[in-house]
Amino acid sequence: MEISYCLKARAKRRLEPFKPEQTLPFGQLRTDHMFMMDFDGNEWYGIKICPYQDINIAPGAIALHYGQAYFEGAKAFMHPDGEIYTFRLDKNAERANFSAEILCMPKVDVEFQIKAIHALIDVDRNWFPLQEGASLYIRPFMFGTSDSLGVHPSESYRYMVILSPSGPYYPTGFTKPIRLLITQKFHRAVSGGTGAAKAAGNYAASLRAGQFAKKFGASQVLYLDANNQYIEEAGAMNHFHITKDGTVFIPEFTDTILKSITSLSMIELLPSLGFKVVQKRIELAEFIDGVKSGDIVEAGGFGTAAVVSPVGEYVFEDGSVLKVGNGEIGEMTKKIYKAYTDIQYGRSKAPDGWLRKVERVCKA
Question: pLDDT band at residue 315, thresholds of 50, 70 and 90?
Fold first, then answer.
């Protein structure tokens, strides 16, 4: 499939490198262009990079009524050579197709997804923020566009990619742990549902739980399984904990847990840093006992936006607090965060295939 370029006039787009005067917020800015294509039930058409703009969608579009939509989240980084590299984009593309299968949507060839995203970044490369710790956040998404009020899969779809120049997730440095709420009041997913997909509706369902968590001074909810027995994931990230012998535990991936690209990468990377990695179902009672006994000394979440979100304490609905270690960011968590971000920013050698250079192709 070939991509058409319908770009803004040069006088109306960014031609000079982006040098923000203040630390950029995460996910708020947009670049000049977006990628878009439509599916008519048989093939993709209208494949183009065009100016970022509002889109037309029928009021009866299936995505608006029944939530047939997914999204992805990836990042690109500028390296010391001045070039932009995407990070593990093939894994995001594969997961997008996994979500599409669960949601009865068409798949998009993995290499074409990468081609389209790289083409868009190339066009808007001057939007990469020249700021310490900055990145270009990549948001691919697809939604059903058929104008129909019947409950069935859409016959037509739109696939899009937008970019967001973003500052460091931790603008004041990697210094402050978060608090998570442990509650039996909310559950993210049940077996047999869409929990393993990056479905838009999963995030809509999480908003109420997130608001509830804030009443306890917590950033997010640490979700349990539907039987309130096992730890699953923490809002927008996979959960992990580290025992004093240096073993990193990540809950086993089930059909109720989104398979985080960051977690998958950590599973590959951490043994080379001297950590043992164990994936298993983790009972809440076992976890609480481990923290209280001092066997569990560090904990947190793995996700694209923050990479690592250290957890200093857990709060319960009765107001009681469970502190992890001394409540601060542990040395092992700091080591993991540094090693991972050093790879992303080109300060350390990446495992084969983790980074792809965005080639300079666009001459327009």
Answer: very high
4-172+351-357 CATH, one of 3.30.470.10, 3.40.50.300, 3.20.20.80, 3.10.450.60: 3.30.470.10
Task: State CA 308 to chain mean position distance.
Answer: 12
Bridge-based pairing state of the strands 321-323 and 33-39: unpaired
Question: DSSP alpha helices (H): ranges in 273-362?
Answer: 284-293, 331-344
Mean pLDDT of the chain: 96
Confidence of residue 170 (pLDDT cuts 50, 70, 90): confident
Q: b/e for 221-256, b at 16 or more Cβ within 10 A?
A: bbbbbeeeebbbbbbbbbbbbbbeeeebbbbebeeb
Q: Where are the alpha helices (DSSP H) in the chain?
A: 62-66, 89-102, 110-123, 200-214, 261-269, 284-293, 331-344
Q: CA 242 to CA 146: how far, in whole Å?
A: 47
Both structure tokens of 364: 């327009």
CATH 3.20.10.10 fits 178-328, yes or no: yes
Q: Parallel, antiparallel, or unpaired for β 4-5 and 44-51? A: parallel
Q: How far apart are CA 142 and CA 243, in angstroms?
A: 40
Coil, helix or strand at residue 107:
coil
Amino acid, single-letter form, for residue 137 = Y
Question: What does the pLDDT read at residue 337?
Answer: 97
Beta-bridged to residue 248, according to DSSP, are: 242, 277
Give the angle subtended at the CA of 98 by the CAs of 92 and 104, to the nearest 5°: 135
Q: Token pair of 226, please?
A: 């539907």
Task: Show Cβ contacts of residue 54 under 8 Å, excluding neighbours closer than 6 positions.
Answer: none
**pLDDT band of 173, cuts 50, 70, 90:** confident
Rounded to 10 degrees, the C-alpha dihedral 300/304/305/308 comes to 20
Give, rounded to a whole angstrom, the gap between the first and last alpha carbons of the chain: 20
Q: Domain ranges in the chain?
A: 4-172+351-357, 178-328
Mean pLDDT in residue range 23-32: 94
